[in-house]
Specification:
Elements (H helix, E strand, L loop, with lengths): L1 H6 L2 H21 L4 H25 L15 H20 L4 H11 L18 H22 L5 H4 L6 H15 L18 H13 L3 H28 L4 H13 L5 H7 L8 H7 L4 H19 L7 H17 L1 H24 L1
Helix pairs in contact: 2-6, 3-4, 3-5, 3-10, 4-5, 4-15, 6-10, 8-9, 8-10, 9-10, 10-11, 10-14, 13-14, 14-15, 15-16
């Protein structure tokens, strides 16, 4: 029954997904955003993050390190984000803000040609998995419309609005990054910001290159990018961990939104799940970079699993990719990175002790 529903009614699912996205777009406009700006943001993310990251991925021949699933798509975002931050800092330091967009655009235009994926190709007639992820993305953006976009309505549109302090702080941090490097903490005079602010950094860079305000990017548009990254990372990790089993990979990704403490059906009334646990709310709204950090966590853990299972011997390129993934985790949510580091040390100790007993 489940497999039948999964394989059938794809046209209906696509129509439903489009309806969800139309609702999100309408919510953005009603909140004071702009459809043209939304399109410009999508183009900016493609040109300044996705295409450069894709070029670096293929230049390093990263496909060869993932023989099982053939391609680790989420590394596009890791490489792209790292390169965007590098050229932004370089341009800001050199006083040539115009230079980074030119470099990124040139790399995007002359990006390496995508190689065929090593694994056997699926039948093009069966696009059920693609439809599944498109529908999941659209539905989460539909929830995001009411959970976050409505709460970030421009005061001029709403007349009167109580905006979250956390959200205003993230917007202030992004604006601070545009003003100076290192950024200053907006809460104190003359104090350098010492916090995990990767999401804000990316927002500041895209804002500088497109002219879209940091408020609109953080309040309306940014989560679309981060959700794509998150779903891609969970898909890649699931493929590696479950040996490319389509059903298990899909269920693994869906579980972040529907099972355990992350119960999507309970989040609408007050943002809390079954056990009044608010992780799902902050994953969807990404007000404190939970979605960003979990995406980097998925990429890093997937690379660790791929290496420990002997799928690849690794190399300098593989090590650098893993290091960038972990650096992204630190930069987006350092407490999670600390937990991961401690867990890895504990796992290594347990492995060492059990091997000695054998």
């Amino acid at each position: 029954m489940v497999n039948y529903l999964y394989k059938k009614f794809n046209a209906f699912k696509i129509a439903l997904a489009v309806l969800f996205l139309c609702t999100y777009s309408a919510g953005v406009v009603l909140a004071g955003g702009n459809i043209l700006q939304l399109g410009l943001f999508a183009i900016g993310c493609t040109v300044y993050i996705f295409l450069p990251g894709r070029a670096i991925y293929h230049a390093l021949d990263m496909d060869s390190y993932f023989p099982q699933n053939g391609r680790y798509h989420s590394l596009y975002y890791v490489f792209g984000t790292a390169f965007l931050m590098f050229v932004y800092v370089a341009g800001k330091t050199a006083g040539a803000v115009w230079f980074p967009p030119v470099i990124l655009l040139a790399i995007s235009l002359f990006t390496a040609r995508t190689k065929p994926i090593n694994t056997p190709k699926k039948s093009t007639a069966d696009n059920s998995q693609m439809v599944f992820y498109f529908l999941l993305f659209s539905f989460v953006m539909f929830i995001y419309t009411f959970l976050a976009v409505a709460k970030h309505t421009h005061p001029t549109q709403a007349g009167q609005l109580l905006i979250s302090q956390d959200f205003m702080w993230t917007v202030g941090n992004a604006e601070s990054i545009k003003i100076s490097l290192p950024p200053m903490d907006i809460r104190f005079d003359g104090v350098v910001l010492k916090y995990h602010y990767l999401t804000e950094f990316v927002a500041a860079a895209i804002s500088s290159y497109t002219g879209i305000s940091c408020y609109d990017i953080m309040g309306f548009y940014m989560q679309g990018l981060m959700l794509v990254f998150f779903l891609t990372a969970m898909y890649d990790f699931g493929n590696i961990y479950y040996n490319c089993h389509e059903g298990k990979t899909n269920l693994f990704t869906l579980s972040f939104f529907a099972l355990s403490c992350l119960s999507l059906w309970k989040v609408l009334p007050n943002g809390a799940s079954v056990f009044t646990y608010s992780l799902l709310e902050v994953v969807i709204s990404n007000v404190n970079s939970q979605c960003t950090s979990l995406a980097f966590l998925g990429v890093f853990c997937g690379m660790i699993v791929n290496f420990t299972r002997g799928n690849t011997k690794g190399s300098i390129s593989y090590f650098v990719a893993g290091l960038l993934s972990f650096a992204g985790l630190i930069f987006s949510k350092s407490p999670i990175a600390a937990i991961v580091a401690i867990a890895m040390v504990c796992a290594a100790l347990v492995n060492l002790l059990t091997n000695n007993e054998k």
